[in-house]
Amino acid sequence: MPDSTVIRGARKASARAYAAEFLSGGGEMGRRMRAIDWAHTPLGALEHWPTSLRTVMRILLTARQPMLLFWGERLVMLYNDAAKGVLSARHPHALGHPLSVAWHEVHALFGERIEEARRGGEGGYDEAVALPIEGAPDGAARFAISYSPIPGDDGKPGGLLCVLNETASMHEAVIGLASELDPDALLGKVTEAARRLTKARFGAFERTCKSKDPVRIEDVARDSGYGRHTPPEGIPPGETVRSYLAVPVTSRSGEILGGLFFGHPEPGMFDERAERNARAIAAHAATAIDNAKLFALARGEIEQRSRAEIELATTRDELAVQVTSLTSLHQMATRLAAVEDIGTALQAILETAVAVCASSFGSINLYDPDAEALVIKAHVGFDDEALAKVRILRPGRDPGSCARSFETGRRVSVSDTETDPCFEGIRDFARHLGIRSVHSMPIVTRGGDPVGVLSVHFKEPRMPTTSQMQLVEVCARHAADAIENHRSREALRESEKLYRAIGESTNYGVWVCDERGRSVYVSESFLKLIGLTQGSYAKSIWSLIEDPEEAERVRGQWKRMVAEGRDWDAQVTVKTAAGGTRAILSRGVAIRDANGRISGWAGMNLDVDRLKRVENELRELDQRKDEFLATLAHELRNPLAPIRNGLEIMRLGRGNAGMVEQARTMMERQLHQMIRLVDDLLDVSRVSRGKIELRREAIDLRTALSNAVETAKPAIDQNAQTLVIDVDESAITVDGDLTRLSQIFANLLNNAAKYTERGGRIEMSAKLAEGVAVVRVKDNGIGIPPAMLERVFDIFTQVDRSLEKARGGLGIGLSIARRLVEMHGGTIMAESAGVGMGSEFVVRLPAVARLESDAAHAAPSRSETGHRRRVLVADDNLDSASSLSLMLQMMGNDVRVANDGLEALAVAESFHPDAIFLDIGMPGLNGYEVCRKLRDNGAAAGAMVVALTGWGQQEDRRRSQEFGFDHHLVKPVEPSVLEALLRGLTPKPPLGV
After folding, report:
1. Into which CATH architecture does domain 693-846 fall?
2. Lowest CB count within 10 Å: 139, 145, 329, 677, which one?
3. Are 412 and 406 in contact (CB under 8 A)?
4. How far, in Å, CA of 701 to CA of 709, rounded?
5. CATH number, domain 517-607, options 3.40.1280.10, 2.40.10.10, 3.30.420.40, 3.30.450.20
6. CATH architecture of 339-486
7. What stretches of 63-144 show up as alpha helix (H) in DSSP?
8. Strand pairing partners for 726?
9. Is the Cα torsion angle 951, 953, 957, 958 positive or negative in sign?
10. Cα 467 off chain centre by
C-alpha cells in the first residue's frame, strides 16, 4: 500500500494545479483562493466545483468593479480585490465563510433579498443601498447593486453575483457638497469626496492652480514633466508619490477657483475612470462654491444692515425669503444629482427660480437650430392659450425680453412692459396675462455656447434685486449644466447604438476577448449566422470547427497569440446549428493600455463562405479549361495527321487514280471535321458574349430537323447506328432562325452518335403539344450519371474523358445548343436513368400559327453569254492565293492573282474583273482600303467584291459592309459557296470586244 502521506500530497498538488487553471491571476484574492484547502469548506474540493461556478470565478477575479459572490444555500462568500474596501476589517476572514458568519449585519438586513434573488432566477437592481461599513461616515456607505443569479450545472439555483456600482458614492458626494454652505468646510468635503472616488491615498484642495487641464501621471519616476506641477500636500511621513492626478476647479466664467491634487505611493493607480470622477466632483464643487459665495454674500448683506432695519418687520420678511431661497437652491441641486430626464430637470430648475424670485410666471426656452427659433421646454403659470403664442420665438425678429436676451447674449430686465420698447407689439398679450415686468437670463454652456433663455415674470412693475438676479443666474448655470449632461449622455447612447448597429448590421462577427483570450462578446448578427447564443459560443468556440485536426491546430495558434501578444489571422470552416458549414475568416488585434500591457483582443469573424464557393467553382472551371485545351490540341491533331498522310499518298500514287481519289475523299472528310471544330469555337465565343443575332422568320421546324439529319448522317452511318425519325406530318411552325435551329438539332444528333456504341439506336421525334413544339433526341448509349444531368450543358464539360473511352469533340456543343434554345425562348433538358441506360434530350420551343407567305421568287439569272468570268484573287499568302486561283480556273473562270493591295489596284485597272476576292490583312494597303479605292475610281464598276478572310466576328462583317464589300466569307470556303456566288454573275465581254 502506498504511504497515505504521499497520497495526500499528490491530491494537494493536483488540487493546486486544478486551481491554477481557473483561479489564475486575480491579484491578492486569486493568490488567497489558490492557497485555501477548499475540501474543508462548504463549497468542497475545487475539482468538484460546478462549471458555472468556475466560469463566474474567472469573471469575478479579473473585474475592476467591486463584486461579491454568494454560493449555495449557506451563501458562502467569495469576492475580488476591488471589494476588499467594501468589506473593510472583515477582509480577509470573510473569504469562504457563510454570509451569516462573515458579515452578519448585511445578512440580517439583506439576507432574505439575496436568497430571494438567488432562488428566483431573475436579476434585479437596487439604487442607493446603504451597506454597514466600518470607518464610513455614519457607519454606512451607499451603493447601486445589480443582482445576477448563477444556476448550477443541474439547472437548480446555484449562487448570486452582486456588482457594486460607484454611482451611489458619487450621488452621496454630490449631496454632501450641495448641503454645505460654509466655504472652508466645503473644501474639506470636496477633497474627501474626490479622494474616495478616485481611490487616492492622500490629496488636498489648493486655492490656486495654474493648469487649466487635468494632469494624470502614471509614474512620476519616469515622467519628466512632474516637476512642472505642484505636488500634493499632506503626504504622510516616509511616503513618496508615484501616481499623480490634478484637476482644476473652474467657475462658469472661466476663473480658476482652485484645484484638486491627489497622490498614491504605487504607480498606475489613476485611470480614466478616476479622472472622470475627479472632474465630476470638480464641476459640482465649482457650483457648490458659487452657492457658498452667494450665501456668504447674502449673509454679509444681512450683517451690514443696521440694527434698526433688522428690527423692521419687512426686513425680517426679506431675510426669511433669502434664507428660504438659498435652501431651495440647495434642495434643487440635490434633486438634480439624481435626475437624468432633461425635461424634469429643466422644470425643477424653473420652479426653483420662480419660487426664489417670488414671481408669477416663468419659462425656459431652448434654441432649435433647425427651426432657427427658441422653443419653450419648461413653463410655470402659462395656460394652453398663452403657450400657443409663446411656444416658438425667433431671435432678431420677435419682440420680448426672451428673444432679445438670446440675441444679445446678455441679461435683459424689463421694469414695466407698458413703457419698455422691447414689448412693442405684444403689450396687449402681456396685459391679458397680467405681466408687468420680466427678467431674462441667457443659458450659456461652460464652453461659451448660448443654448437658451431662462425668464421669470412678475405681475407688478419692478426691477429685480441684486440677490434675485444672482439667484436667476445660478439657476441658469444649473440649466446649462443639465443640458450639457443630457447631451453627453445622449451622445454616449448614440455612440453605443452606432457601435452596436455596425456590429449587428452585417454578417461580420465583431468579437472581444479578455487579456487571457477568453470570449467576452460576439455580435448577435454573427451568432444568428451560425445559430448559437452568447453563452454557447463562449463554451464551444473550438468545437465549432468542423475538422478535429484543424481545430487542434487553430487552438494552438490561438494559445501562441495570447502568450506572445501577436495579431490573430486564421481561416476556418465552422459548423452551424442547422447542420451545415460556413467558411470564416477570423482576424483581430491586441488592445494595449497606456503602459503597453495587453488588456484584451478585438476583431471580426468575416463570413467568406460564398467567396470560398466561388473560388472552388473558379478552380474547377480552370481545371475544365485546361482539360479543354488539351482536348482541343488532341482534336486538331487527329485530322491533321490523315491530311498530312493523304498529301503523301497523292504524291506517291499519281498513276493510281483510285488511290488518289480515296486519299482526296479522306482529306476532305478530315478538313470538314477541322472546320466544324473551329466553327464550334467561334460559336461558343459569340454566344458567351451575346454577339449572335437571330434572323427570325416563320419556318417549318421539319426543315430544320431535315437539315440536322443531313449534317449528322455521316457520323451516324460511320458508326453503323440506326436512326429512327418520328415527325408530325403536318407543319410545325416556329418563329426562329433556320440555320441556328438546324445547328441545335445537329449538335444533339452528333452528341447521341458520339456517346452511343457502334450499332446502337438513335431516335428523333417532333410533336406539337398545346402550342409548344417538343423535339426529343434519344439514344441507348452510355447514359449520364445523375450528378451530371445539369452540368452536361456547362462549357468544356464531357461526361467521360477517360483515354480508353475518348469519343472526340470539345465538350461545347451542348452548351451552344442550350444558349441558342434559350435565345429562341425555349428550354432544353437532359434525362437519363443512369450510366449505361442511354440518355434523352428534350427541346421545347414556342410554336406560332402557320403563316401563309408568298412564294419566294428568285431573281432570274442572267442569260448565259458563253464568256468566261474574269476573277481577281488578292492575298499575301501565296499558297492560299495560288490554291484558290487553281480551283477557280478549274471551275472555268479567267483568274488573275495579286499578292498585296497596291498590286491588286493595278491589276484591277487593266483586267476589269467580274468578281474580286480580297484578303483583309494585306501589306501596303489592307483589303478595306483596296475596296474603297476600287469603288471610288470605278475600277470595280459592276464587279462583285468579296472579303475572304479569317476574321468572322459580327464587328468584322459590319466593317466590311461599311467599306463597300458585297459579301464576307470566312476561310476556308466551301467550293459550292464560291460556285453559287459566281453563278449569278453575267460575264463581261472579253477585253477589246
Report:
1. 2-Layer Sandwich (3.30)
2. 139
3. no
4. 13
5. 3.30.450.20
6. 2-Layer Sandwich (3.30)
7. 84-87, 99-102, 104-120
8. 765
9. negative
10. 59
